[in-house]
Design brief:
InterPro entries: Phage_holin_3_6 (IPR009937). This is Integral membrane protein. Pfam families: Phage_holin_3_6 (PF07332). This protein has 126 residues and is mostly helical. The chain has one domain. The protein starts with 11 loop residues before the first helix and ends with a helix. The mean pLDDT is 81.
Length: 126
């Protein structure tokens, strides 16, 4: 397939200026999109940190209550403290898994994909 120049009356200098302008606009758009994606990933990372912090606090409480239950094993009625401690440990595991799943795996994945597509397009046109 033969490419036809849509503006045969344009000079080479005009075409170069237009290409530079379009490249500048493309870079501005890519930077804005990357900034938006980064903000989105930062908010997801914050949520992940909150969940992991809650998991750590629940684990700490659970371990403390299990230790209290062990201490009460010497005295009567240790079962309630043991059950509460195990419940806190289970809660810590669930919240920890949720927090771990929210950690971004591949930062700026969409930006890298767009930049790769832009590079392929430029290589095809050049």
């Amino acid at each position: 397939m033969r490419q036809v120049d849509p503006r045969p009356e344009s000079s080479t200098a005009d075409l170069v200026k237009e290409a530079i302008t379009e490249a500048r606009e493309l870079m501005q758009v890519e930077v804005a999109l990357a900034r938006d994606e980064m903000n989105e990933e930062i908010s997801r990372a914050k949520a992940s940190c909150v969940a992991l912090g809650a998991a750590a606090a629940a684990a700490l409480l659970g371990v403390a209550l299990v230790l209290v239950a062990i201490a009460l094993a010497i005295a009567p009625e240790p079962l309630p403290a043991l059950l509460i401690g195990l419940a806190f440990i289970a809660l810590a595991i669930v919240v920890g898994v949720v927090g771990y799943k929210r950690v971004p795996r591949r930062p700026l994945e969409r930006t890298r994909g767009r930049l790769g597509a832009d590079v392929r397009l430029v290589r095809e046109l050049v």
